[in-house]
């Protein structure tokens, strides 16, 4: 699914209106109907306060007010003079508002509002038409609303948030629990500095014409369940006469003194994600726990007791190699990594300390085999690529890095994003904040390595792996409504996540 810019969405809007054909007022009605459908399906609240502006986002809000009223809900409207003109469709929806709905005008002179605590607060002040940061009484009004305890829903985009441009520092933005967004999530909802204001995102289909979207140039995509399923199912069902050799032999280079757990987590994930065979290269200090916790794995031992060193093991039989989880930064481990980069014959996944070693030896980046997969969290990426002023600069750095070194860069976090050497970025919608616990990355590295070993291309292995990892995290979180989950809890759900991806 493409993540178009605000101007492309406006263009798609126009094309839909002229070619479908549908009038703009009817498109607005569809948008409002979809919002009300979502509200009725997801909330049992009786009272709603609509904050509507004077542009088309405000028009959506006024239509939502009418439709909720028609459903027997208690509705109150604050009509906010946020722009000198009233859009035509907003005016029509103002005229359509039933007289029973109380409406109060708010402007610079009169901006007092009282919202009962039990009322759900719906923000339809600004949509994607926002052209400058909110100031003065409007900014003060939003700050006041943000301090209220009410459940808050933003329509299309939280007011004050830019759709696709760098957000000026200190901007005032409506802080939503949910954002009901039309057609697609907007880029800034998926980025760390602004995304928090959107809360949970629900994408509502309002029937914009897909054939025109297809032709619009775009480098940003949101992974959809259907796309990930179709990629995963390319290698399914498993042949009846399959044997362990059919699904590849993975090598994980992981662990050091005090970090044997990382190798155990990566190993378990690699097995559950379907590698046919698994060997780990580990230091002897991790030998016993690994043999006990993961009896399925074979072990190669480093000749150094507590860390990995270059022992000239033969890696030629492995179909994929994952390196880095808990390996530490010992200088002999660094030599090992350099040697691996120079000699690797199988696709590589570089995680954690493998990335930190690269950051300490930037010259070695040129040794990265083409199409290697790097899986940094933001701090690791900063060590590799330098710091950034805002999320958009971080996105540019990620794209540039992937293109320069012809590798895939996964920037981990909420809406983890995957940069390809061709300049595309895929955002991942699965996962949740309960997954912010140590060891989650080790699990992910194991999963991606297993998918590579089974023969998926680096791009598909990475996208499927990230999606499945987040999905398993969502299943584990939902099982107990947990605030935090451990990687072990996620591992338990991994087979279910893959099973879900294996059915159409
Ligand atoms: N295809 C769709 O997605 C559909 C979208 N709809 C809704 O329409 C809005 C976009 O509406 P638009 O009239 O273009 O703009 P806004 O309502 O966001 O803004 C109103 C108006 O305000 C002015 N303005 C901009 N910035 C500021 C500012 N900082 N201070 C004061 N005034 C400002 C500017 O002139 C704007 O025009 C979209 O988000 C959807 O909610 C359709 O209803 C359905 C189809
Ligand atoms: K809004």
TrEMBL record:
It catalyses: (6R)-NADHX = (6S)-NADHX; (6S)-NADPHX + ADP = AMP + phosphate + NADPH + H(+); (6S)-NADHX + ADP = AMP + phosphate + NADH + H(+); (6R)-NADPHX = (6S)-NADPHX. InterPro entries: Carbohydrate_kinase_pred_CS (IPR017953), CARKD (IPR000631), Nnr (IPR030677), Ribokinase-like (IPR029056), YjeF_N_dom (IPR004443), YjeF_N_dom_sf (IPR036652). (6S)-NADPHX binds at residues 56-60, 127-133, 156, 262, 326, 377, 442. Pfam families: Carb_kinase (PF01256), YjeF_N (PF03853). Its cofactor is K(+); Mg(2+). K(+) binds at residues 57, 123, 159. One of its GO terms (biological process) is nicotinamide nucleotide metabolic process. AMP binds at residues 412-416, 441. One of its GO terms (molecular function) is ADP-dependent NAD(P)H-hydrate dehydratase activity. Its EC number is 4.2.1.136, 5.1.99.6. Keywords: ATP-binding, Isomerase, Lyase, Metal-binding, Multifunctional enzyme, NAD, NADP, Nucleotide-binding, Potassium. SUPFAM superfamilies: Ribokinase-like (SSF53613), YjeF N-terminal domain-like (SSF64153). Gene3D superfamilies: 3.40.1190.20, YjeF N-terminal domain (3.40.50.10260). CDD domains: YXKO-related (cd01171). NCBIfam families: yjeF_cterm, yjeF_nterm. Homotetramer. Catalyzes the dehydration of the S-form of NAD(P)HX at the expense of ADP, which is converted to AMP. Together with NAD(P)HX epimerase, which catalyzes the epimerization of the S- and R-forms, the enzyme allows the repair of both epimers of NAD(P)HX, a damaged form of NAD(P)H that is a result of enzymatic or heat-dependent hydration. Belongs to the NnrD/CARKD family. Belongs to the NnrE/AIBP family. This is Bifunctional NAD(P)H-hydrate repair enzyme.
């Amino acid at each position: 699914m493409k993540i178009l810019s605000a101007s492309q969405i406006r263009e798609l809007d126009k094309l839909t209106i002229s070619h479908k054909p549908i009038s703009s007022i009817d498109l607005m009605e569809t948008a409002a109907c979809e919002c009300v459908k979502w509200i009725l399906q997801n909330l049992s609240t009786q009272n709603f306060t609509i904050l509507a502006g004077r542009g088309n986002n405000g028009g959506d809000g006024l239509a939502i007010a009418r439709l909720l009223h028609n459903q027997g809900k208690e509705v109150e409207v604050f009509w906010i003079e946020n722009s000198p003109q009233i859009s035509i469709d907003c005016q029509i929806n103002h005229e359509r508002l039933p007289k029973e709905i109380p409406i109060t005008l708010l402007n610079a002179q009169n901006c007092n509002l009282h919202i009962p605590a039990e009322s759900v607060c719906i923000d339809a002040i600004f949509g994607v038409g926002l052209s400058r940061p909110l100031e003065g009484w409007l900014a003060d009004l939003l700050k006041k609303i943000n301090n209220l305890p009410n459940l808050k829903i933003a329509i299309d985009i939280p007011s004050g948030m830019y759709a696709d441009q760098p957000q000026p520092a200190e901007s005032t933005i409506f802080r939503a629990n949910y954002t009901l967004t039309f057609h697609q999530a907007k880029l800034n909802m998926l980025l760390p500095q602004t995304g928090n204001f959107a809360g949970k995102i629900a994408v509502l289909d309002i029937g914009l014409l897909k054939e025109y979207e297809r032709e619009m140039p775009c480098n940003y995509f949101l992974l959809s369940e259907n796309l990930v399923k179709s990629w995963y199912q390319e290698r399914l069902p498993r042949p009846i006469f399959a044997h362990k050799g059919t699904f590849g032999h993975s090598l994980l280079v992981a662990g050091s003194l005090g970090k044997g757990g990382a190798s155990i987590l990566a190993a378990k994930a690699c097995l559950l994600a379907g590698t046919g065979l698994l060997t780990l290269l580990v230091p002897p200090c991790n030998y016993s726990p690994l043999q006990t916790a993961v009896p399925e794995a074979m072990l190669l031992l480093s000749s150094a007791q507590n860390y990995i060193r270059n022992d000239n093991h033969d890696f030629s039989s492995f179909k994929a190699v994952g390196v880095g989880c808990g390996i530490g930064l010992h200088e002999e481990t660094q030599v090992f990594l350099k040697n691996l980069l120079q000699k690797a014959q199988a696709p590589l996944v570089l995680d954690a300390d493998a990335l930190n070693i690269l950051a300490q030896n930037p010259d070695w980046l040129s040794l990265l085999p083409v199409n290697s997969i790097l899986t940094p969290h933001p701090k690791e990426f900063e060590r590799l690529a330098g710091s950034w002023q805002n999320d958009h600069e971080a996105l540019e750095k990620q794209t540039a890095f992937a293109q320069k070194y012809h590798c895939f860069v996964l920037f981990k976090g909420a809406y983890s994003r995957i940069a390809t050497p061709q300049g595309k970025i895929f955002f991942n919608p699965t996962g949740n904040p309960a997954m912010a616990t140590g060891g989650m990355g080790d699990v992910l590295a194991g999963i991606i390595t297993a998918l590579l070993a089974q023969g998926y291309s680096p791009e598909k292995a990475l996208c499927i792996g990230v999606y499945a990892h987040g999905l398993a995290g969502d299943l584990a979180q939902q099982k107990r409504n947990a605030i935090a989950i451990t990687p072990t809890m996620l591992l338990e759900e991994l087979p279910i996540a893959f099973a879900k991806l294996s059915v159409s």
